[in-house]
Design goal:
405 residues; alpha/beta; Rossmann fold; 2 domains; seven-stranded parallel beta sheet
Length: 405
C-alpha cells in the first residue's frame, strides 16, 4: 500500500474511532431527556503526533506536540488497541481502558494517544463570543450541529439559532462562493465555533466525507438539521420527467443518504442525538402546480417518521418542522422562492412584495413567517423540551388545511 493510501486508511479509521471515544468521555447527567454532557474532541494527525502516540514512554517528554502541554495526569496510551475491530468489540476495549484510567487517576483522560493514528484531546473553549455570554446556561453548549443546504433564508435563521444556543456548527451546502460568503458572515460573530463543509447530499461519498471532516474537527455530531431541498412549479400533465427526477434526487435521496450516515454515527457514538427535518406545509396540504415538490417532500417527511421508529432504541429523536413560505432572512434569500417565485407572481398577477403579502394574509395569525421562526421550532426539538419523536411542528401562522393529521 502506498503512503498516501495508508494515510487515508488511517484517517478513515480515526473517523470511526473518534466518535466512540467522544461518547465514552461524555459525562452522564442523570437527566433522561438529556442524558449526556458532550465534549469537544480535537485530533492531531501530524507526523509528530503519530510518533508521540507510538509509545507510552512519550509521556515523559517535556515537549508535547502543539498545542498540547504536559499536565499532572499523563495521556492515555492505547498502544494495544485493535482499531480495526467490530464496533461493539472496539467500544468494549476502549471503555475498559478509559474506566481503568479513571479509576487510577480519579478523572477521565484529557489526552488519548492512538497508535498509528494520532492524538485526540479535549478542547475546553468557552462561548464568550455570544452576546449573552458563555455561561453554563447555554442549552446546547458543546453540542455539534450540522445543517444541510444551509446557505439560504431558513438555513441562516437555523444556523444563527443553533450558534446562539451554544452549538459548534457545521454549515453545509454545495461548494462555491455562496457557501464561502455565508461562512464569512457567521464567522464575524461565531469565530471558530462555525465551519463550512461542502457537501452534495445526492452523492454518498460526498456526504460520508463531509461528516468525516466534521468529526475530525470536533470529534462527533449531536444534531443534524436536514434542510437541503429544491422546488419546481409544473402541472402534472406538463411535468418534465428529468426535472422531477432532479427533485427526487435532492429531496428524497439526499435526505435518505443524510439519515443513513448520521444513523451509523449516532450508534457508534452511543450518546443519542437529534435529527430535525425541514418539511413543508405542502406535505399535508399540497397545491396545484406543486406536485413534484409536494410528493418528494412527503417522501422525505415519511423517511423522517420511519427514522424516528428505527432510531429511538439508540436514544435518537427524529422530528419535523413544517414551515410555509419563508422568503428571506437578513440578506439571505430563499433559493426555493427564487426558483418558484416568478411563476407564483405570474399566476396571481402580483409583484414580489405583493406575493409576500399574499402569503402573510392567508394564515390565521396574519404573520410573516421568518427563518428565525423556523429556528425556534428547531431549537424546541434540539433542546428536548418534551419527550417527543416522530412529531411535526407547523410554522405557518395557522393554516387549517395544513394541520398535521
Amino acid at each position: 500500500m502506498d503512503k498516501n493510501k495508508s494515510n487515508q486508511v488511517n484517517l478513515n479509521r480515526l473517523a470511526l474511532v473518534t466518535p466512540v471515544i467522544r461518547g465514552l468521555l461524555a459525562n452522564p447527567t442523570g437527566n433522561p431527556d438529556i442524558p449526556y454532557e458532550p465534549v469537544i474532541l480535537k485530533s492531531l494527525t501530524s507526523k509528530e503526533a503519530v510518533n508521540f502516540a507510538a509509545s507510552a514512554e512519550s509521556a515523559k517528554a517535556q515537549q508535547y506536540p502543539t498545542p498540547l502541554a504536559k499536565g499532572r495526569k499523563p495521556p492515555l496510551f492505547l498502544d494495544a488497541a485493535d482499531f480495526s475491530a467490530e464496533p461493539e468489540n472496539l467500544r468494549k476495549q476502549l471503555s475498559d481502558w478509559i474506566s481503568d484510567y479513571s479509576g487510577q487517576y480519579n478523572r477521565k483522560p484529557e489526552i488519548i494517544c492512538l497508535r498509528d493514528l494520532g492524538i485526540l484531546y479535549l478542547d475546553r473553549q468557552d462561548n464568550s463570543w455570544f452576546p449573552r455570554g458563555g455561561g453554563p446556561d447555554l442549552p446546547l453548549k458543546n453540542k455539534v450541529a450540522v445543517v444541510t443546504g444551509a446557505a439560504g433564508a431558513i438555513g441562516y435563521g437555523v444556523c444563527r439559532g443553533l450558534l446562539e444556543a451554544g452549538c459548534y456548527l457545521a454549515a453545509t451546502d454545495l461548494p462555491g462562493e455562496k457557501l464561502d460568503d455565508f461562512l464569512a458572515e457567521l464567522k464575524e460573530t461565531a469565530g471558530d465555533h462555525v465551519i463550512a463543509v461542502p457537501i452534495d447530499v445526492t452523492d454518498k461519498a460526498s456526504v460520508a466525507q463531509g461528516f468525516e471532516n466534521i468529526i475530525q474537527t470536533w470529534g462527533g455530531i449531536d444534531i443534524v438539521v436536514v434542510n437541503a431541498g429544491i422546488a419546481m412549479v409544473s402541472l402534472l400533465k406538463e411535468i418534465d420527467l428529468d426535472a422531477f427526477r432532479k427533485l427526487e434526487k435532492v429531496n428524497v435521496e439526499g435526505a435518505l443518504l443524510t439519515l443513513s450516515e448520521i444513523a451509523r454515527h449516532f450508534i457508534l457514538q452511543g450518546t443519542g442525538g437529534d435529527v430535525i427535518i425541514i418539511s413543508t406545509k405542502n406535505v399535508p396540504s399540497p397545491g396545484a402546480g406543486f406536485g413534484a415538490y409536494s410528493a418528494t417532500k412527503a417522501a422525505c417527511h415519511q423517511l423522517g417518521r420511519i427514522a424516528s421508529i428505527e432510531l429511538a432504541q439508540y436514544g435518537v429523536r427524529v422530528n419535523m418542522v413544517a414551515p410555509d413560505a419563508v422568503f428571506s432572512e437578513g440578506k439571505h434569500k430563499s433559493g426555493l422562492w427564487e426558483e418558484i417565485g416568478p411563476s407564483r407572481m405570474q399566476a396571481r398577477g402580483l409583484d414580489e412584495k405583493e406575493l409576500q403579502e399574499y402569503y402573510r394574509t392567508r394564515n390565521l395569525l396574519k404573520a410573516r413567517v421568518t427563518g428565525r421562526h423556523v429556528s425556534n421550532a428547531v431549537l424546541f426539538f434540539a433542546t428536548r423540551q418534551t419527550p417527543t419523536t416522530g412529531a411535526t411542528i407547523p410554522v405557518d401562522g395557522g393554516l387549517p388545511d395544513a394541520t398535521p393529521r
